[in-house]
Amino acid sequence: MNGHSFSLALAVVLLLTSAAHAIEGTPAPTLTVKIDRDRLHLEVRDQPLTRVVAELSRVSGLAVHLRVRADRTVTASLSDVPLEVGLTRLFGGDANLVFSYASASSKLPAELWVWPDRPDAITADVARLDADEPPLSNAVARLHDPDPRARARAAAAIAATRDDSLVDLLARVARDDTERDVRAAAVAALSEIGSWRALAALKHVTEAQRRAFTSPRGAQP
Question: Which domain CATH number covers 196?
Answer without folding.
Answer: 1.25.10
